[in-house]
Amino acid sequence: MVVVGAGLVGRACAWHLLQRGHHVQLLDPGLDGDPDPNSGSWAALGVLMAQVFHRSSGRGWRLRQRSLTLWTLWRQQLAAQGWPLAWRPGLLLLAGNDDDLERHQRLLASRQRQGMPLELWSRPQLEALAPALPAGATSALYSAADGQLDPGTALDALLGDGLRLGLQPCCDRAERLERRPGGWTVRTSSGQDLRAEAVVLSAGVASAALLESLGHSQPQEPVLGQALELELAAPSSWDTPGPWPGAVVWQGVNLVPRPRTGDPAGARLWLGATLEPGEQADPAALTHLRQLGGAAPAWLQQAAVIRRWQGHRTHPIGQPAPLLAELEPGLLLASGHYRNGVLLAPATAEWVADQLERS
């Protein structure tokens, strides 16, 4: 079979299919080692919000919980093959007002009924953490099971171990899908014809374009996100007494402590990401992010920008994310994960494999 798109979801699908004994070709022009700098996967921060998801039922809830379970298993399997993933457990979801606190209390009660040990942290508990959190944080919901997975290590591991399992990479761009008896042909920009019994489309906005000639309307749009890597101006450590218990989320912005490299006294942080419809970055949106909407503590304002990057998330138009559909026998769409591609990659891959093996 052919998997079109080598972002995190595409690589997860390919790797999981190989694990289950399938022959897989992975098609993407970025497989030559020079990935698209605007790729959503390479730009992602990898914050996994599963148990603190605001719903407690439905497809989105089920996918998140299954993915969280699978990521634990996948990390073990990949580490055993020499591909350890950078994983930081723990997620602190900050509340900035009474409405946030009320939502957190309802969610806490719901999760307790489900046997999930979330914790409600008070303002004094937050004030004991270093470095200081935004002054507007009045309380927080803490999940030890959620956390942050470095997308770069996951991308490398899924491809690297996939090659060990027999993955056939094809550094080319899919131009057209054509039906043929018993399967499909994927025509590439260089004129290759890849024949397969099944095709999995995980190429973001390009997936929608490939489907149009077949009569399938699955519109998607890019939503740009900008992110920053910061270095603290004053030497600090995430391992001092009262450290953050993991990644922090403040009004939709992720603050992710980074492992120290080089200077053992230094500390770095990922900050992101903006939500900007379209493909053009807005400097004002980046400034707003840098200032946390006016709530940035002094240490964050004084931090030096080490790196800035951006990427495009794919957002379905008129349908909930993600788009998981068998459109025809042997033609599967697994795209449009929006802000949750890293989290939902394993459950998506499992869904793809189950659909193919059921037909």
Summary, kept brief:
With 359 residues, the protein is α/β, with parallel strands linked by helices.
Please supply descriptive tags for the structure shown above:
19 strands, 359 residues, 9-stranded mixed sheet, 6-stranded mixed sheet, alpha/beta, 30% strand
Give an overview in words:
This protein has 359 residues and is of the alpha/beta class. It is built from ten helices and 19 strands. The chain has helices at residues 8-19, 40-43, 59-80, 98-113, 123-127, 151-164, 205-212, 283-290, 298-302, 341-358; strands at 2-4, 25-27, 47-48, 87-95, 119-121, 139-149, 168-170, 174-180, 183-188, 193-196, 199-201, 220-231, 247-250, 253-258, 268-272, 276-277, 304-316, 323-328, 331-335. The strands form three sheets. Strands 3, 4, 5, 6, 12, 13, 14, 15 and 17 form a nine-stranded mixed beta sheet that branches. Strands 7-2-1-11-19-18 form a six-stranded mixed beta sheet, with helices on one face. A three-stranded antiparallel beta sheet has the order 8-9-10, with no helix packed on it. The longest helix has 22 residues, at 59-80. The model has no long low-confidence stretch (mean pLDDT 94).
Q: Kindly state the mean pLDDT as a whole number?
A: 94
Share of residues in helices: 25-40%
The biggest beta sheet reads:
9 strands, mixed
Order of helices and strands: EHEHEHEHEHEHEEEEEHEEEEEHHEEEH
Distance between the termini: 14 Å
Q: Total number of helical segments? A: 10
Structural class: alpha/beta
**Total E-strand runs:** 19
